[in-house]
């Protein structure tokens, strides 16, 4: 796929951009499988990052937010299965110790390391096994850094059923993204954990502008269950090894990559069987379009109907109508479509309802709404609601 002949979406084996390398290993955070990862640039880099606005932001977020201010991050380490949130002063000290260990292995300053931690809230990190693990890794040095992007994406997973990766090319530079997250998922700044690595040469101001623009149109348009995590982090690191690229072309490619990851995250929502997209057009402004779209996307009744392929389109009207502060919305000006079938204001016939049920049986379901107020439009991304969502979260810590 190309876009204005400025960037491309790659296919084939996924590899890191130039001068990046990675490590994954088992540090005892979960019973089996890799649960610690490190991705690092061999050379200095520029960076941009965004973090959760949760009042219970974890120590990893607090520490990383401080490190990110200089916009010179060059490494990311992630601990899976333990969020290290609500763990008091000890949790802060443990996060700082993990960063010290990683910085020591890499031979870089501590404030150039970002840390992500994801999983159960309220449990201390098993620092004994983590220290031992890092000691052994340090002895191996860079010989241990042979992991591929897919390995890191797998090591970050908690209740995810599959790893999430994406890649784009801009000029001679490559952009590689990895992400995790399927529950406690409605970002309010960024997303679960999402990291982007590129060998493009960009100044921090352009990188930051590109990231914020991309997040606003992608990760901030994502919701699985309306809940904002205490650990949400998104960051981009650019080491310049491939030379400069056009800021606009980079921003477009970054947005497309983040949209790719957003839809992967939405379709793998906890218990999900379908990707749900809701588009609201002809809104008064973008905020209104996004707000109404999220209201429909997040409705348990709408999500349940989508799961059961029940053509109960009245639930969409309900979800629009409960936005009682949007007094400029007039029912007579609203239209609603499922796929290419209009269900309001044209009342569907019986055979149309059968066709509508058929559309709702697809793996991807699109709902389109127009408000008849202006020209603004927003699309949001989520999933259906199944009994498995309850099962997963009822048994999460056991």
Give a written overview of the molecule.
The protein is an alpha+beta fold and 398 residues long. The protein folds into 2 domains: 266 residues, L-amino peptidase D-ALA esterase/amidase; 120 residues, Ubiquitin-like (UB roll). The chain is 33% helix and 27% strand. It is built from 11 helices and 16 strands. A 7-stranded mixed beta sheet has the order 1-2-8-9-10-11-5, with helices on both faces. Strands 14-13-15-12-16 form a 5-stranded mixed beta sheet. α2 links the parallel β6 and β7. α2 packs parallel to α3, α5 packs parallel to α6 and α7 crosses α9. The longest helix has 21 residues. The N terminus is likely disordered.
Descriptive terms for the model:
seven-stranded mixed beta sheet, L-amino peptidase D-ALA esterase/amidase, five-stranded mixed beta sheet, disordered N terminus, alpha+beta, 398 residues, globular, Ubiquitin-like (UB roll), 2 domains
Instruction: Give the percentage of residues in beta strands.
Output: 25-35%
Distance from first to last alpha carbon: 44 Å
CATH homologous group name of the largest domain: L-amino peptidase D-ALA esterase/amidase
Structural class: alpha+beta
From the 3D structure, determine the CATH topology of the largest domain.
L-amino peptidase D-ALA esterase/amidase
Q: What strand order characterises the main sheet? A: 1-2-8-9-10-11-5
Q: List the secondary-structure elements in sequence, H or E.
A: EEEEEHEHEHHEEEHEHEHHHEEHEEH
């Amino acid at each position: 796929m190309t876009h204005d002949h400025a960037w491309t979406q790659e296919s084939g084996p996924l590899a890191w951009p130039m001068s990046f390398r990675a490590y994954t290993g088992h540090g005892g955070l979960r019973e089996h499988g890799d649960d610690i990862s490190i991705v690092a640039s061999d050379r200095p880099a520029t960076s941009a990052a965004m973090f959760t606005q949760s009042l219970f932001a974890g120590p990893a977020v607090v520490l990383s937010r401080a490190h990110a201010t200089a916009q010179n991050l060059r490494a990311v380490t992630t601990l899976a299965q333990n969020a290290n949130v609500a763990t008091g002063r000890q949790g802060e000290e443990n996060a700082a110790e993990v960063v010290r260990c990683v910085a020591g292995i890499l031979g870089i300053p501590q404030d150039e390391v970002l840390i992500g931690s994801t999983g159960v809230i309220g449990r201390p990190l098993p620092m004994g096994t983590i220290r031992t693990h890092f000691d052994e890794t340090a002895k191996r040095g860079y010989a241990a850094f042979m992991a591929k992007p897919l390995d890191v994406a797998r090591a970050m997973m908690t209740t995810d059923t599959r790893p999430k990766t994406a890649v784009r090319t801009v000029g001679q530079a490559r952009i590689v993204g990895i992400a995790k997250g399927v529950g406690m998922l409605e970002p309010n700044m960024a997303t679960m954990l999402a990291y982007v690595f590129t060998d493009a040469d960009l100044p921090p101001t352009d990188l930051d502008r590109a990231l914020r623009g991309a997040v606003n149109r992608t990760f901030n348009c994502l919701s699985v269950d309306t809940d904002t995590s205490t650990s949400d982090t998104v960051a981009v690191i650019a080491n310049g090894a491939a030379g400069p690229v056009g800021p606009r072309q980079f921003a477009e490619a970054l947005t497309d990559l983040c949209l790719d990851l957003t839809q992967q995250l939405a379709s793998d929502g906890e218990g999900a069987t379908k990707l749900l997209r809701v588009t609201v057009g002809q809104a008064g402004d973008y905020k209104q379009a996004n707000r109404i779209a999220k209201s429909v996307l997040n409705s348990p009744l709408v999500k349940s109907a989508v799961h059961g392929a029940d053509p109960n389109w009245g639930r969409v009207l309900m979800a629009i109508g409960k936005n009682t502060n949007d007094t400029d919305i007039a029912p007579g000006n609203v239209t609603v479509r499922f796929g290419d079938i209009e269900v309001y204001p044209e009342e569907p016939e019986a055979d149309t309802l059968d066709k509508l049920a058929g559309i709702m049986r697809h793996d991807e379901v699109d709902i389109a709404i127009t408000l008849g107020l202006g020209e603004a439009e927003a699309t949001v991304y989520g999933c259906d609601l199944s009994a498995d969502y309850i099962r997963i979260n009822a048994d999460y810590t056991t």
